[in-house]
Amino acid sequence: MNFEDPCNKGFTIYSKSGCHNCKKAKNILSELKIKYNVIECDEYLIENKEEFLLFMNNKSGTECKQFPIIFNDGLFVGGFIEFKKYIDTFFIDNCFE
Prior knowledge:
Blueprint: E1 11-15, H1 20-31, E2 36-40, H2 42-60, E3 69-72, E4 75-78, H3 80-92
Parallel strand pairs: 1-2
Antiparallel strand pairs: 1-3, 3-4
């Protein structure tokens, strides 16, 4: 199975059904009017979970254990907690400088 790479420009959110933090990440970007790409991973997880997780680990450079898995400009940001810190630092703080 071929898995979709994160976009080289902008945010990419690897998401799955029923993921509360995936929805929160998408809502934050929408509220900030930041465009993003969503890759729904349900099919990947059903058909070939181990291979998909290995793909994510290779792309992120770390072991991905939970969703969302978020990249910006093709670079790994992290899960929701890391994403929130990233947004607060690089987008919210810069609005007031």
